[in-house]
Amino acid sequence: MTFSHLLTRAVHINRAGSRSAFTSSKPDTANPNWLRVGLAFGTSAFLWGLLFKQHSSDVHEYKVRNGLQ
């Protein structure tokens, strides 16, 4: 028996006797998990709000330091 033939047999035996730990059911797109959707959009909106607030604060500090205001 050649090495490739032995390897192919070992792969077939290994796949038949084990189950992958990473298999899961496909997500149901017709019925989304609304809690996760809300958390994702809420977190995104919160982070954008912090970004705009920080930008406004930075612009104000820039104007004060350079005597523009």
UniProtKB/TrEMBL annotation:
It is a single-pass membrane protein. Keywords: Electron transport, Membrane, Mitochondrion, Mitochondrion inner membrane, Respiratory chain, Transit peptide, Transmembrane, Transmembrane helix, Transport. The keyword Transit peptide applies. InterPro entries: NDUFC1. It is found in: Mitochondrion inner membrane. Pfam families: NADH_dh_m_C1. Its main location: mitochondrion. Accessory subunit of the mitochondrial membrane respiratory chain NADH dehydrogenase (Complex I), that is believed not to be involved in catalysis. Complex I functions in the transfer of electrons from NADH to the respiratory chain. The immediate electron acceptor for the enzyme is believed to be ubiquinone. Belongs to the complex I NDUFC1 subunit family. Complex I is composed of 45 different subunits. This is NADH dehydrogenase [ubiquinone] 1 subunit C1, mitochondrial.
